[in-house]
Structures
1.
Amino acid sequence: MFNDRTISFIGGGVMGEAMIRGLVEQKLVAPDRVVVADPWQPRLDELGERHGVQVTRDNGEAAEAGQIVVLSIKPQSVGAVLPQIRGRLRGDDLLLSILAGTPIRILADGSAHAPVVRAMPNTPAQIGRGISVWTATPEVSGRQRDEARAILGALGREIFLDDERYLDMATALSGSGPGYVFLLMEALIDSGVHMGFPRRVSEELVVETLRGSVEFAAQSGKHAAELRNQVTSPGGTTAAALYHMEKGGLRTVVSRGIWAAYQRSIELGRVGDERGKGGAD
């Protein structure tokens, strides 16, 4: 799909590499049509050797080289990076950002570039099982939308929404979601060890229980409450456990935690706005 296009990545971290791996392994782009910019030379050497991509420490050089420029840096670095690529993108280039909590207005103003896609993937993208929520400015063409969809599709599933406010919600729910799942896994595994299981056995039981439950829920098409009721016999072991979890406020704690993540994403956008303005002046 990208035979005549060069894709540049500003930032060679975990998510950037996941996108590169997906694109190259699915043969959507040739390795020599991928450019990666990162300040850490050992990381660049690693990426170049592992994936056969071009590398540079110059963000502006990478931006000029690509028709599609992917921002895969830390949100805290946006104020320093945007001035480095400002004026380097051509009018028909696409800027695609996976920065958490960084609004499109910051990206467009800081880069002086209107065609912008903002996306929020999550960490299962590293194995091609992620899900990304994304939106685009009106200046993004139909071809560019297809390209954005293909890039994000290399990470797993993707959902387009035309209202940017959903991106902060997605950051809190699906973007940070794996962290919540890993915490639950940790608690379940530790509970198994507390009862007397060897940790290795407890880990296998928990991982397979979660994997099977999620796949069963996806295939069944039933509401989570209905599935829960199916395994909760009156007066049984599951009912006893769920009673204490509900009594302990599990739902409230989860809801408050996700709301805090949502508010933090919005706050990061405000902080980034100040940094973006400072960098662009």
2.
Amino acid sequence: MIKNPQRSNLLSPETKWFSINHHINSILYIPLIIDDKVKYFLAFDAMNEKEEFSEEEIEILSFFGKELSKAAKIERMDDIIHDFKNPAIAVAGFAKRVKRLVESNEKEIDKERLFRNLDILIKETQRMQDMAMSLHVEAKEEIVDLTEVLLRRCQINEEVIREMELVNIKSEIRDIEKGLWVRCYPLYMERIFDNLLHNATNAIQTQGQRGKIVIRSYKELNRGVVEISNTGEISEFTRDMILKGESRGRGLQIIFRLVNLMNGKIELLVKDGFTTFKVSFSLVKRHR
């Protein structure tokens, strides 16, 4: 707690000026600790006739801060559980393929197919482990090819479509440009694409008609761009709600949060019978 904030050496001139103009007599800072690190502070002001906070008030507000920290961790856990769905379905699908190959009556097993499926199976289970560990371990930035990440996630989404027997949905990859190097958290980028692809799949499934998902990636000025489109147009009202962050869908909330975290941009286009999410990130030079 800082008493007489106007005289404190711990506060900036702007904060001192603010405290004078708003008749603030003392400021109580409560740290929010997440994963053993102070991530945020809650600030409470004693104003006008109130000179400072009592011990009982400090105890209550500290308890409130601890509960907020717990809620933040639970929110992150809910996000991870949400994003487990697609890789879990894909893993089951690839595991079945491997089992069929091993149990086949053919004299010579197609080793290339077997190893390809095993490789994807190992990578996806490792990724699920990384997602679980991200609750406790800070993510690390890397330079990756945006298109390569996108194509891997498209492969997983196609397996999900196949596993769920969604025969009315087709994926189409167009205008792919490789070498779109961006600095990002790879796991977060994968989660963005997984959620966009899942939402596109779900949108077509909800319509109950045949439809397709169209994938594009390209360079636009100094940015790498990915477009994920699905058949069907949303209303202008729904579009505005989504862009304002007022959508109830957890997947969309995760997408917007992670795109903003990595200083990306997101646009939502509705035209020619398609709804398109366009995400872009600053390009960087790859150091060999």
